[in-house]
Amino acid sequence: MRARDICLVAPGLRTRRRWEIALYLSLLFGVGLLVFETLHARTWSGLYGDNKAQFGRYGDNKAQFGRYGDSMGQFGLHGDRVQSDTVEDDERQEVELTEFPGTRPESIASRKSRVICLCSLWSKIAFRPLVSHWRVSRKHQFLYCPVEKTASTFWRRFLHQLEYTSPMRSPFDVDVKSLYASRDKNLEVTESGEDLAALWSNTTKLLFVRDPYSRLYSAYVDKLLSPNPTYWNNWGKTAILKYRNTTAEAVRGDSCGDDVTFPEFIRYAVSQDGQSDTHVMSIYRLCTPCKVNYTVIGKMETFSRDTRHLLSVLRINESQLGLERMADDVTRDAVVDSVKDAMSRPWLDETLRCITRADVVRRIWRKLQIRGFVSWRFNYGIDPQTVTAMDGASLVEVLKQAVRASTNRTELGIQKRQAMVEAFSRVTPSQIAAIKRTFFLDFQMFDYDSSPPSLANSRTGVAAMTDAFDWRKDWDLSPAL
Ligand SMILES: *[C@@H]1O[C@H](CO)[C@@H](O)[C@H](O)[C@H]1NC(C)=O
Ligand SMILES: *[C@@H]1O[C@H](CO)[C@@H](O)[C@H](O)[C@H]1NC(C)=O
Ligand SMILES: *[C@@H]1O[C@H](CO)[C@@H](O)[C@H](O)[C@H]1NC(C)=O
Ligand SMILES: *[C@@H]1O[C@H](CO)[C@@H](O)[C@H](O)[C@H]1NC(C)=O
Ligand SMILES: *[C@@H]1O[C@H](CO)[C@@H](O)[C@H](O)[C@H]1NC(C)=O
User: Fold this and answer.
1) Collapsed DSSP state (helix, strand, coil) of residue 281
2) pTM of the full structure
3) Where are the bilayer-spanning segments (predicted)?
4) Angle between helices 28-40 and 17-26 in degrees, nearest 10
5) Nearest 5°: phi and psi at 209?
6) What are the tens digits of pLDDT across the range 281-305?
7) Dihedral of alpha carbons 365, 371, 373, 379, sign
8) Residue 299 φ then ψ, to 5°
9) Neighbour-count burial for 104-131, b at 16+ CB within 10 Å, e otherwise
10) What's the average model confidence in pLDDT over 118-147?
11) Ligand 5, pocket residues at CB < 6 Å
């Protein structure tokens, strides 16, 4: 079947195709620039992402774009919005479950044909594959393109076990710290030319994707809200210096970059600099799905189903994986990982220059609330004397108690979604438009809704604000309940 024909049968595309082509034509000039940029420079956002005058038509004009990208009813089939077996489950689902009662998650096959179809339409936008980023198990002919903030740690552990244990043991037995502590050259892709082509044709190739809004949000919560001197410095300071009306001296001098806001981070993430960082780079560019014919394209939002599918492709018995341990493991990792580094000596040496020890604890606490592990009802109640004496191990104990006591899953879900909606409500429309442009192909290829998360099911239609990110004061969620 020719690609054109596949386009015609790809789910959701039949009705969309006319718009696709209209857009393609209207963007032709822009694409020309893109190709030029791809050939002559590393990045494209300078021309593509920032020039509002030129791309205003596409990204900012709601009348036009809304019809194309935002209207969900029009295109019928929408995958993945019903399933709810996720790792950090996609907050959006709960809402959409009620909106699209009849829909089923799209099949893996239709996901692939959708990508192939869009590749044929967008073949002019081509990035060079980031081969050094991939990981491979040659023994099992398995290739993985890691997408950060999309269960990449799980898949790195998976690949490690696949390569080194026989019969394969659970990924959860691999210590995360040691996994990242040193490079394992054996798992890196060093092939080039014909060898690389052979590797591509002979391996089972895995890509796991995630909704761009969730991915960006998760990067902020994990690396900037949570005390992390490295990312405060790399992302926070850079963003503040560039986007805040402040003097350069003030930023270079005392600042740690710890107070970078979500809107500032978003501006950075969609900028040229941000898009050269693999943590926030668009998946299209990071894993080049038009250059690599992925065998399985999984989604974070249907994690269990897609993982089972991959296992059947690789002929691995599910019981070897311990997937049932996943939920507990994610929770344990969330608590321990939030605390271990942040309360360690080298990190504290950095962070305590700018914030107090109590602030460190408060931020960790709020992060676990925002991620839906600790109820908003349990507020940080540790007095300053205790904090001074408190070490990582004792904080982990206190947090574990709080996690155990947080049993109302419904409310934890509301809490999690509320925080995400609040974060995006502070991002300006022009920055939302920039997200839509930067992740344009991610939204399209992987069939994600390009409108930002909202409380579509709230009775009033107006989201209550609860200052979820003001970690200095206790979180009061009652206005949103
Ligand atoms: C790929 O598979 C072909 C045919 O099965 C085989 O001849 C070739 O050696 C394989 N290449 C690699 C790199 O495994
Ligand atoms: C930055 O702050 C200065 C002094 O407060 C003000 O005069 C200037 O207009 C501000 N610039 C912007 C772009 O907001
Ligand atoms: C991609 O791989 C599938 C098998 O997974 C194969 O049927 C198809 O022909 C390949 N397409 C291209 C363009 O290589
Ligand atoms: C998977 O492994 C379990 C336990 O080792 C075994 O009981 C089961 O029959 C296996 N399933 C398949 C399909 O081989
Ligand atoms: C869980 O929280 C929701 C929302 O606040 C509330 O309506 C419900 O009654 C709670 N359930 C229990 C068992 O407390």
Assistant:
1) coil
2) 0.79
3) 21-39
4) 60
5) -120, 170
6) 999 999 999 989 999 999 988 888 8
7) positive
8) -125, 140
9) ebbebebbbbbbbbbbebbeebbbebeb
10) 89
11) 408, 410-411, 481
